[in-house]
Design goal:
nine-stranded mixed sheet, 21% strand, Rossmann fold, alpha/beta, disordered N terminus
């Protein structure tokens, strides 16, 4: 099975959900799982990415885990036919074009494991200040959730903020992803800037946005979650960046010029998730630019990944200054999405699994931590508009302080964002806390 090169990161794909356009085209995601573009069902015309597996006979419990039995490799993948079920799938062997026989796998039953854990210890005060550490203390009682057919603008009371004129106007949100279709009606009133940062080692530059009619992309769903008429911050300017390290370097050099308050990234660095040292497997220049961004007045948000893990998130979420975002369900914001990767390095939870922009003016269901991350990024634009003199660290402080805590199996008191309460807290604060950098109120496994 071909593996992606460690030089060019590839977006993670939710098999059976993410749309594609070329039948039988293959792709490898960031967890080195291979997918093929296939019909969603026998009689459907819709094409989606499906994990290349032909047998789902036995249940499993850890997405992407691989086992080798009698020389055949199996992977734990989402069932195509039974929603929410994980099953062992036989990976295809390209060198053997003949159909593979069905093999019944009876994996050893998984024991029930009780994890006794306490959250990372936090100081009483923010270091070098007399300001109490921001712990979430709110609740979500009045937010009962919205249907999955709703939009970002419908979540957690946001529509009320928009009616008050708090839309993020005057600020920009950048996102590193695939190109978007700026001709989509949802973006008719939005300013969209496109940046080509696709060649590592070549300086990124602003370009005329490519024509994207007839095409859909992961970035399109991200953009519709952030801004446009469906977004959490409908007044923001959108900066679509196709690239990775060079894209982050462009943000570092240009965030003041374009008034960028946050950059949302739904991709992660390659590497062995079992390595204990944060950053060792990152591509050239990646950790360095993140270190530089951590010392600036900008929010850098990364999605945690969708691996169903309770004590692992992909790099670079372990680095100080990187805001790590995972998902709650939009229709039940008081519950963590089952697929969402969680660890003590996590910073925020935000809604996911609702409608966003699709191709050719259409709507598409979007989801995963890839949707929660741009949703959380939008809050920084709302916060800046509500309190322009606040720096990004101070807005992050009030996002955490006004949040509602949720416990997971391993990690406790994870903050679920509450946009209305965050804006109210910023407006009502007589004196803003004397903090200047996001990393001052983070405790990460990646060190200082």
């Amino acid at each position: 099975m071909a593996l992606a090169t460690p030089i060019v990161p590839v977006l993670a794909i939710n098999d059976g959900v993410t749309t594609c356009s070329e039948l039988n085209k293959t792709k490898v995601d960031i967890d080195s799982i291979e997918y093929k573009c296939q019909k969603k069902s026998k009689n459907s015309t819709k094409l989606v990415w499906q994990a290349i597996a032909i047998d789902r006979s036995g249940k499993c419990f850890q997405l992407a885990k691989k086992v080798v039995i009698n020389g055949s490799t199996y992977i734990c993948a989402r069932s195509i036919t039974a929603k929410g079920v994980l099953g062992w799938g036989l990976l295809s062997k390209k060198e053997e074009p003949t159909p593979q026989p069905t093999i019944i796998i009876n994996p050893t039953p998984q024991p029930t494991i009780t994890i006794n854990s306490t959250p990372k210890s936090v100081p009483q005060f923010i270091p070098n200040t007399n300001i109490s550490w921001p712990l979430p203390s709110g609740d979500l009682d009045k937010y009962k959730g919205v249907p999955r057919s709703a939009f970002a603008r419908d979540q957690l009371g946001l529509s009320g903020l928009h009616q008050q004129g708090i839309t993020g106007a005057g600020y920009s949100i950048a996102f590193l992803d695939y190109w978007i279709d700026k001709s989509h009606p949802a973006f008719s009133k939005s300013k969209v800037v496109c940046v080509d940062a696709s060649v590592e080692g070549v300086k990124a530059k602003v370009i005329t946005c490519p024509e994207m009619q007839g095409k859909n992309s992961h970035g399109q769903g991200v953009a519709g979650t952030v801004g446009g008429s469906f977004g959490a911050a409908p007044g923001v300017d959108l900066i679509s960046i196709n690239g990775y390290v060079e894209g982050l370097n462009w943000v570092l050099e240009n965030y003041k010029k374009y008034n960028i308050v946050a950059v949302s990234v739904s991709i992660g660095s390659y590497g062995d998730r079992n390595r204990p040292v944060c950053g060792v497997a990152s591509v050239a220049g990646f950790k360095e630019v993140l270190d530089a961004l951590a010392n600036e007045d900008i929010a850098v948000l990364f999605s945690t990944a969708n691996t169903w893990s309770v004590n692992w998130v992909r790099e670079p979420n372990c680095l100080p200054g990187v805001i790590s975002v995972a998902s709650v369900n939009s229709d039940r914001p008081f519950t963590i999405a089952g697929y969402s990767s969680i660890s003590p390095d996590i910073d925020l939870l935000a809604p996911a699994e609702f409608a966003s922009t699709g191709k050719d003016g259409t709507l598409e269901h979007f989801g995963g931590t890839s949707q929660a991350t741009p949703f959380a990024a939008a809050l920084f634009a709302l916060g800046k508009q509500a309190r322009p003199e606040a720096n990004i660290a101070q807005i992050f402080y009030y996002i955490k302080l006004s949040a509602a805590p949720i416990d997971d199996i391993f990690v406790k008191q994870i903050p679920v964002i509450r946009p209305v309460e965050m804006v109210q807290a910023l407006k009502q604060a007589k004196d803003l806390p004397a903090i200047t950098l996001v990393k001052q109120i983070q405790i990460k496994s990646g060190g200082n």
